[in-house]
Amino acid sequence: MAPRRKKIYEGKAKILYEGPEPGTLVQYFKDDATAFNAQKKATIEGKGVLNNRLSEFFMTGLTNVGIPNHFIRRLNMREQLIRQVEIVPLEVIVRNFAAGSISKRLGIEEGTALPRPIVEYSYKNDALGDPLVPEEYIVAFGWANQQDLDDIVSLALRVNDFLSGVFFGVGIKLVDFKIEIGRIWDGDYMRLIVADEISPDSCRLWDVKTGQKLDKDVFRRDLGSLTDAYTEVARRLGVMPANATPMKPTLIN
């Protein structure tokens, strides 16, 4: 029997295991879906497979256009080999159109185009509900310095340009998305790279013509089948065959 792998971390949607070589991890995508800071939960068969394939597609695309990220290669249907990084304790949010919390906070109608892409930060802390934080807090508490923040904004906007173009090419509007950033060291030199995942779990995606939601808002707002939405994204991008059959969700209390 193969030895049990050492679990490094388990989040709401993924598990990280010790990798086969120093400086690597194995990222496993679960079938769990959560919303409203995990107050709403479901197990959706096949969701992890879809997100593994989609995140591979986007991370490979980032590599091809010179945007550094943690992805090394996909190992199987649910796992990928990634570089081990020190995660900056922030979610970096890029907004192109008003939706979700910014609409509620500022009273802007959902779908309104923003004057330019807006980059926001939330502090990664589930117990606090991942609160939005200004740059002043981030620098004062030592989560990142000003140079880090300049580099993070540059990375986030480059990712936005890439993703917006890819999605628009298949008739999907990138409303907003969030990424995480990791630190890696080459000797004494520190670099910031894109980490975690890029998938419909971390993006708001609307059909350009109909406005149909193709992201986790389908689950949040009870708008239909989440796997139908994710499978449609994968089909349009050529990640899954056109005749792929969506899996069925199983709700849990």
Automatic annotation (TrEMBL):
Catalytic reaction equation(s): 5-amino-1-(5-phospho-D-ribosyl)imidazole-4-carboxylate + L-aspartate + ATP = (2S)-2-[5-amino-1-(5-phospho-beta-D-ribosyl)imidazole-4-carboxamido]succinate + ADP + phosphate + 2 H(+)
Keyword Ligase: yes
Record-level GO cellular component terms: cytosol
Gene Ontology molecular-function annotations: ATP binding; phosphoribosylaminoimidazolesuccinocarboxamide synthase activity
InterPro entries in UniProt: SAICAR_synt/ADE2_N (IPR028923), SAICAR_synt_PurC (IPR033934), SAICAR_synth (IPR001636), SAICAR_synthetase (IPR050089), SAICAR_synthetase_CS (IPR018236)
Lineage: superkingdom: Bacteria
Name assigned to this protein: Phosphoribosylaminoimidazole-succinocarboxamide synthase
Gene symbol of the encoding locus: purC
